[in-house]
Amino acid sequence: MTVPHTPAAPAAPAHARPVRKAVVPAAGLGTRFLPATKATPKEMLPVVDKPAIQYVVEEAAAAGLDDVLMITGRHKRAIEDHFDHAFELEQALAAKGDTLRLDAVRDPARLAAIHHIRQGEPLGLGHAVLCARRHVGAEPFAVLLGDDLVDPRETLLSRMLDVRDEHRGSVVALMEVPREQIHLYGCAAVERTGQDDVVRVTGLVEKPSPQNPPSTYAVIGRYVLDPAVFDTLERTPPGRGGEIQLTDALQELAVGGTVHGVVFDGLRYDTGDKADYLRTVVRLACDRPDLGPEFLAWLREFVAAAESGETGRQGLAA
Ligand code: G1P
Questions:
Q1: In CATH, what number does 14-272 get?
Q2: Which H or E element spans position 200?
Q3: What is d(CA 146, CA 82) in angstroms, rounded to the nearest whole number?
Q4: Which residue, 75, 174, 202, 290, is the most exposed by fewest CB within 10 angstroms?
Q5: C-beta of 219 in contact with ligand 1 (< 6 A)
Q6: What pTM does this model have?
Q7: Residue 206, ligand 1, Cβ within 6 A
C-alpha cells in the first residue's frame, strides 16, 4: 500500500508560535507562614477548600494553556500528589457513589498535562524560570506566581495572550498600588499606547526604594514571556537579595523595546501575606453559593459584635 506523501508543515518561527505552556514557580520556603509550612508547601495552603496552587493551574487552563510545568524544590511532594490520581481515595468514593467528591478529587489531574522539575538551588525567581528552558524550548510561555491569585471571574491572562499576539515580545501584568507599597514589588516605568489597558514598559526595577520609585505600577505575578528571555536570564547577574531576578532580565528586554504591560484593575489577592491570605479566604468563601449566604450572615453578626465592643465568646458561635 502506498502512503500518500504529505510534506511536513514548516515549523512556525518562534515569534509566531502560540502560547501553550505555563510555568509555575513553586520552590519558595514559605517562611512567612511558619509553622504551617514546616511540612506543607505554602502553595498547598487551603483557600476555602482548594489549595492555592489549584486556582493558579485552573487560571492557566481557563486561558487555554494545557501544559503546566511546576518548578518545585525539596519538600514539595504534596504538590505532585495533588495533581496526580489518588487511586485508593477515588475507589473509596466511587464505591460510596459520592460523585461530587470524586470529581473534586479527580479535577486537579484533569486540568492540564502537569510536569514537575526541581530548582535544586534557591537562586531566585529568574533562576527558577531559567530551569524551565529545556521544557519550554523556543516557544513563548506564561509564568504564573502562586502568591498572586487572580479572581476566577477575571480574564487577565487571556488578555495578556492577546497582547502578546498583537505586539510580540513579552507582556507583564501591572497594577497601580499605593505609593507606600510599591517597594514590595517589581516596578515598571511606562509609556501610554493607543490602547487604554496596554502600556509600553520602558524600564523595570525590582523592589525600588520607597523614596523614588519610577512609578506606582507594580508587576503582579503574571507574565507572558518571549523565549528570548532565556538568553537574557543566562547572563543576568544576581540582583536584589543576591538572587537572579526575573525583573532584571525583563529590564534588559524593556530597554530593547520589547516589553508591554497590561494594566489590570480587577480582583487580585495576595496569598503570600498573612492578612491578605485571610482576606482572600473570606472573600472567596463569601462568593461561594454553597457557603456564602450562611457564612456572610455569621460574618455580619461577628463584625457587629466586634464593633459594639463585645469580646470573648460572643459573636463567635457559628
Ligand atoms: C515577585 C517578583 C516581583 C513581583 C512580585 C509579585 O516578588 O520578584 O517583581 O512584583 O513577585 O507578587 P516576591 O513577591 O516573590 O518577592
A1: 3.90.550.10
A2: strand 198-206
A3: 15
A4: 290
A5: yes
A6: 0.92
A7: yes
Say how far apart CA 11 and CA 142 lie, in whole Å: 20
Each domain of the chain, given as residue ranges in start order, spans: 14-272, 273-310
Q: What is the DSSP string of 79-137?
A: HHHHTS--HHHHHHHHHHT-HHHHHHHHHHHHSSEEEEEE--S---HHHHHHTTHHHH-
Could you give the CA distance from residue 25 to residue 60 in angstroms, rounded to a whole number?
13
- Nearest Cα to Cα of residue 145 among 126, 161, 158: 126
Q: What's the CA-to-centroid distance between 186 and ligand 1, angstroms?
A: 6
pLDDT at 86: 93
- Examine the pLDDT at 288 and tell me if it is beyond 80: yes
User: Averaged over 236-260, what is the pLDDT?
Assistant: 96
- Residue 20 Cα to ligand 1 midpoint, Å, equals 23
Question: Quick one: pLDDT band at residue 318, thresholds 50, 70, 90?
Answer: low
Whole-angstrom Cα Rg for the chain: 22
Provide the 3-class DSSP secondary structure of residue 306. helix
